[in-house]
């Protein structure tokens, strides 16, 4: 385990802790709980498996939630409003035409805050904590958030907790962009997703409320195929997959493999949904690892979460958490050879 100063934001120091094993080294920031870098040994040397930036200034100005824990509500909330216990709440609008909607917890959210950080060398883990006050970004109630990253060989375990002092919505997501080739695009990646249904979107990329079959769409990865094969028109993927309620959470919900390196990623989750995003329109001005330019299809996100806009769809699994029923998510990622 290594620790270094990464920068300063206001009166808070930003630190980076690198968790190490024989198979991997994963660098974590206390800025947004960001996974800044994930290295594995490949045929051509040490390869970066995630997109990231060399400076804090890059994260402040160029990052699109790269590697961060996003929330209190990840993804999109229509009209930046919801109703809870007979009261309407207005969230920070920061998405869509005229910034009409709400995305990833607001203008700052959890992914642009400096968290308290503690290390545990005995278990190769880092613990991050943040106290979100009542009314932050428009959300009701105070929430004590706790995120733990633990490296177990090639496996990174991420556990997210939120303890509110009153009923409030919580729906977090880990937002790392993976590229198993160490650079270039992910269009050659073979992808498999254990889901037969997804949520169709409107023009603002918010679910319509329908749950549809992936059959006959470019989103059907029940049988492995490359992103290029599934989407020759380069439409892109930014959709929430509906995971089977009876699935075994100990088994992968999705995997991807890069033919250039033979690296394979497996994602396990206890959440009902998995947003898959392949950055079809992303163009980042700041250089990434090794000066890499992050353009269209540069990364692939596996954002385990409850369904987007759940607060406006009471028929979907609830995101309301209470002091008696706090928030918990287990998100587990393995990066393997072959």
Question: How would you concisely characterize the structure shown here?
Answer:
It is built from 2 helices and 28 strands. By secondary structure, the protein is mostly beta strands. The protein has a 9-stranded antiparallel β-sheet with strand order 11-12-13-14-28-24-23-18-21. A 6-stranded antiparallel β-sheet has the order 17-26-25-22-19-20, with no helix packed on it. The chain has a 5-stranded antiparallel β-sheet with strand order 1-2-3-4-5, with no helix packed on it.
What does this structure look like?
It contains two helices and 28 strands. It has 338 residues and is mainly β. Strands 11-12-13-14-28-24-23-18-21 form a nine-stranded antiparallel sheet. The chain has a six-stranded antiparallel sheet with strand order 17-26-25-22-19-20, with no helix packed on it. A five-stranded antiparallel sheet has the order 1-2-3-4-5, with no helix packed on it. 3% of the residues lie in helices and 41% in strands.
Task: Going across the biggest sheet, name each strand in turn.
Answer: 11-12-13-14-28-24-23-18-21
Largest sheet: 9 strands, antiparallel
Helix content: under 10%
Uncertain runs: none
Fraction in beta strands: 35-45%
CA-to-CA gap between the ends? 27 Å
Q: Write down the overall mean pLDDT.
A: 96
Shape: globular
| Rg computed from alpha carbons, rounded to a whole number of angstroms | 19 Å
Per DSSP, the total helix count is 2
- Helix vs. strand class: mainly beta
How many β strands by DSSP?
28
- Helices and strands, in order, run as EEEEEHEEEEEEEEEEEEEEEEHEEEEEEE
């Amino acid at each position: 385990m290594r620790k270094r100063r990464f920068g300063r934001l206001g009166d808070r120091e930003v630190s980076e802790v690198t968790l190490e094993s024989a198979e991997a080294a994963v660098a974590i920031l206390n800025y947004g709980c960001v996974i800044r870098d994930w290295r594995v040994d490949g045929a051509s040397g040490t390869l970066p498996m995630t997109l990231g930036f060399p400076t804090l200034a890059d994260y402040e100005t160029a990052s699109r939630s790269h590697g961060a824990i996003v929330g209190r509500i990840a993804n999109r909330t229509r009209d930046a409003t919801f109703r809870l216990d007979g009261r309407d709440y207005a969230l920070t609008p920061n998405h869509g035409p005229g910034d009409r909607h709400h995305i990833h917890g607001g203008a700052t959210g959890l992914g642009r805050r400096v968290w308290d950080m503690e290390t545990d060398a005995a278990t190769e883990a880092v613990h991050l904590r943040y106290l979100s006050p009542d009314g932050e970004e428009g959300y009701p109630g105070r929430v004590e958030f706790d995120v733990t990253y633990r490296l177990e060989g090639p496996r990174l375990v991420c556990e997210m907790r939120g303890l509110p002092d009153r009923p409030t919505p919580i729906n977090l997501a880990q937002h790392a962009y993976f590229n198993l080739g160490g650079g270039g695009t992910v269009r050659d990646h073979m992808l498999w997703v254990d889901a037969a249904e997804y949520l169709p979107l409107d023009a603002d990329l918010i679910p319509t409320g329908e749950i549809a079959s992936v059959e006959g769409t470019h989103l059907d990865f029940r049988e492995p195929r490359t992103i290029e094969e599934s989407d020759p028109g380069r439409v892109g993927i930014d959709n929430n997959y509906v995971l089977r309620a009876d699935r075994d959470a100990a088994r992968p919900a999705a995997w991807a493999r890069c033919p250039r390196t033979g690296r394979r990623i497996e994602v396990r989750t206890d959440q009902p949904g998995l947003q898959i995003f392949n950055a079809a329109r992303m163009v980042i001005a700041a250089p990434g690892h090794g000066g890499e330019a992050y353009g269209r299809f540069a990364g692939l996100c596996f954002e385990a979460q409850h369904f987007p806009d759940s607060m406006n769809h009471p028929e979907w699994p609830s995101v309301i958490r209470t002091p008696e029923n706090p928030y918990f998510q287990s998100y587990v990622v393995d990066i393997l050879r072959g």
